[in-house]
Amino acid sequence: MSENVVCTGAVNAVKEVWEKRIKKYNEDLKREKEFQQKLVRIWEERVSLTKLREKVTREDGRVILKIENEEWKTLPSSLLKLNQLQEWQLHRTGLVKIPEFIGRFQNLIVLDLSRNTISDIPRGIGLLTRLQELILSYNKIKTVPKELSNCARLEKLELAVNRDICDLPQELSNLLKLTHLDLSMNHFTTIPPAVLNMPALEWLDMGSNRLEQLPDTVERMQSLHTLWLQRNKITCLPETISNMKNLGTLVLSNNKLKDIPVCMEEMTNLRKINVHFYGTYENTVFW
């Protein structure tokens, strides 16, 4: 009986030793694998950083990252080593998202990521306090974050051909320097209040949306000199439009208009009206 106990004890001891050895071996193997993966990541980051540096140019004293027709679905964190960049031009790269660390590029003046597959604008965009131009046309964006209103120097915003944008946050009316806004080919059914209250806006394109009428408050856009409203469903214009004294160009082709308000004759600065009257086939242009 005692011999059996001794034998069992010895077996258990050997088993315990082997289990510890196997456990240590697996832990060592795991650490080795993690180390190898870390080396791969470091190598990949170095390679990507080298590739990115090759895409950096200088034009008119501005440091620009320029990539076109190359696949960059995501941007590596190694890009942070190029935080002196003042402009990004990334077109047709298949980029699916703006990196969360975008806010750390405090020197950015122009961010042009048009013709990609971006679906979201990170809230960190609001940290780009020097940004003057944001161009995100031809993407898949659905909403615009209110944090964009913190980009106080923004002068140009293009969100054309995203298809599904239907509203803008009211906070964007705080963009006091915005003069150029392109919202064409989206899903707007009215001009957003934020747009109506942008004090410096001079050029607005809301063509190819779902506008059926203009609000009476359209007259708030006193700085506007060019208004594109082609390819909508507008049936009539509010008489208050005559109070837009600086409006020089108004494009209304391919709508459902039957006439234009007589009061528009008082708009002495209006040089060009392009109208496609509903039920006719020709465009009428007045100079």
UniProtKB/TrEMBL annotation:
Cited InterPro entries: Leu-rich_rpt, Leu-rich_rpt_typical-subtyp, LRR_dom_sf, LRR_domain-containing, LRR_R13L4/SHOC2-like
Keyword tags: Coiled coil, Cytoplasm, Leucine-rich repeat, Muscle protein, Repeat
Coiled coil: 15-46
Residue spans crossing the bilayer: none
Matches recorded under SUPFAM superfamilies: L domain-like
Keyword presence, Cytoplasm: yes
SMART domains: LRR_TYP
Domain called Disease resistance R13L4/SHOC-2-like LRR: residue spans: 170-281
Assembly description: Interacts with MYH7 (via C-terminus).
Name the record gives this protein: Leucine-rich repeat-containing protein 39
Encoding gene (name): LRRC39
